[in-house]
Amino acid sequence: MTQAAPMSTTSSATSDTPGTMRALIKHHAGPGLQLVHDRPIPEPGPREIRIKVNKVGICGTDRHIWEWDEWAAGRIPPGIITGHEFAGVVDKVGEAVTKFSPGRRVSAEGHMTKALDYNSRTGNAHIASDTRIFGIDCDGCFAQYIVVPEENGWPIHDDISDKHAAVFDPLGNAVHTVMAANVSAKNVLISGVGIIGLMAVTVARAAGAARIYCTDVNPPRLELAKKLGAHEAFDARDEHWIKHVRAETHEGVDVLLEMSGAPAAMDQGFRALRNGGTAALLGLPARTVDFDFNAHIIFKGCTVLGINGRRMWETWYQMEKLLLSKRLELDDIITHEFPMSEYEEAFRTMMSGDGIKVLMNVDE
Ligand SMILES: [Zn+2]
Fold it and tell me: Hey, what domains does the chain have and what are their CATH numbers?
């Protein structure tokens, strides 16, 4: 991968006041976000890179922050810049940075760790005990500039667009889940086809899954899942599909990818899973779930995988190769782009379900 020629390190903020930038912040401990124009442009520390942000993605997490639910109220420090999905260009680097120079197109892994704990040192940095996430624990990317540790930067391949690079974070969740469950030549059930579930359909297809079944309670999303490569898609409110799938797959699917977090979908998914199958769980239940461990896990002898974040950096390399293979269909999932000045409409579109993955252009 070649690096672009270094550009001037002088910042060129399009804000009203020099040295300040436009940013979408969590302005108070309550619902909504606020667009401000006077946020100071951050300076990179010795081992940090500053990135001029171009495109950002609105995540389900940002929705929780917008709505200020129990999770957000307990986790998000009011005053921070939100957002963790983006594509941009390196604008300035700290004096100890060796890998990046200004002008390089980049995205970044949102999970930051000091790389000193047990998991970081044994190849599992995605579940490090000291993980902090930008846009959640500290300033994020819904701004003209973001500063991240050099180790967190990911150079964007020349043949990958900013539109696709802006969704590396959720796409990486999908790739991580699909690859962890090893779907090649297996029958796969994906329960929940929201943003990441839909991405999992196209990833599972590209990764060589045999038959792909999907469930959800949203008929248009089920139709889209079929367009992206699901062989059959069922409305989860009618449980007849379980019998049909178990019959068609000789005793159940080999792999369950749980993307909904809905207790009923978890119960159905495990009923459709064959004995000895593998379940990879990414969806987050809103509260403690009543779950039949005996029937679903113990007597079934199945393997259950909890999926968090993206493997650093195996998932990122897999994602790049899958994108370059041109086998992923993302353009039907990324439905809208808005100027960040229209952030209210962008969030409304995402939260109402009118849009699926919604991007914003921070300079507009
Ligand atoms: Zn996200």
Answer: 20-167+330-361 (3.90.180.10), 171-306 (3.40.50.720)
